[in-house]
Amino acid sequence: MSRIYGRTGNEKIYDSIYDYANRKIDEDGSIQTYRSADYNLDMIKSGHVIFWLHRQHPEPRFKMAMDSLHKQLKGQPTTSQGGYWHKKRYPNQMWMDGLYMAEPFHTKYAITLWKETRRTKYCKDGQPLSYDKIPDFEDYGLGCFLLAGSEVYKMD
């Protein structure tokens, strides 16, 4: 919706985005329905619109909400290869959709909010960049990996 607003300038669209965030993000930056202890990458996706809103209408609560999401990623459980678990309740499962939820947010956070030396170290170290942590299921004789990543099937 933020892209549509950017193209049209329709204030009703902006108002709708802001109103939703206004109802979901408290003054202390708490995000209603969000529990960091769940370590759920689905919740990180909301961080993209919070970034956008923070640029449009800077409010401390938006920055605090982004900090909470980033803190989750710092503690997010990982596979033995270092890729993020999709959710705490799915131990050792790395889902493809988690990549577009977590990595873009984490990278945007680093580029936007960290000082230059820390950004350089982040990019140099490749932290955490789960893209290269996805197992190559062909190595295991498996012919198909469903994109959701929740199940693996052997194809004959």
Q: Strand order across the biggest sheet?
A: 1-2
Radius of gyration of CA atoms, rounded to a whole number: 18 Å
Total domain modules: 1
Principal-axis shape: globular
Number of helices: 6
Q: Could you say what the CATH topology is called?
A: Glycosyltransferase
By DSSP, the count of extended strands is 2
What share of residues are in beta strands?
Answer: under 5%
| Unreliable sequence segments | 137-156
Distance between the termini: 43 Å
SSE string:
HHHHHHEE
Mean of the pLDDT scores? Answer: 79
Query: In percent, how helical is the residue content?
Result: 40-55%
Using the coordinates above, name the CATH class.
Mainly Alpha
Based on the coordinates given, report the CATH architecture: Alpha/alpha barrel
What's the main sheet like?
Answer: 2 strands, antiparallel
What structural category arises from helix and sheet content? mainly alpha
GO biological process, one term: carbohydrate metabolic process
Pfam families: Glyco_hydro_88
InterPro entries: 6-hairpin_glycosidase_sf (IPR008928), 6hp_glycosidase-like_sf (IPR012341), Glyco_hydro_88 (IPR010905), PolySaccharide_Degr_Enz (IPR052043)
Protein name: Unsaturated rhamnogalacturonyl hydrolase
Element layout with pairings:
Blueprint: H1 2-8, H2 11-24, H3 47-56, H4 60-75, H5 96-113, H6 116-125, E1 144-145, E2 152-153
Antiparallel strand pairs: 1-2
Helix pairs in contact: 3-4
Describe the overall structure:
GO terms for molecular function: hydrolase activity. It comes from Pricia antarctica. It is a single chain. This protein has 156 residues and is mainly α. The protein has one domain: Alpha/alpha barrel (Glycosyltransferase). It has six helices and two strands. It has a two-stranded antiparallel ribbon. Helix 3 runs antiparallel to helix 4. The radius of gyration is 18 Å and the shape is globular.
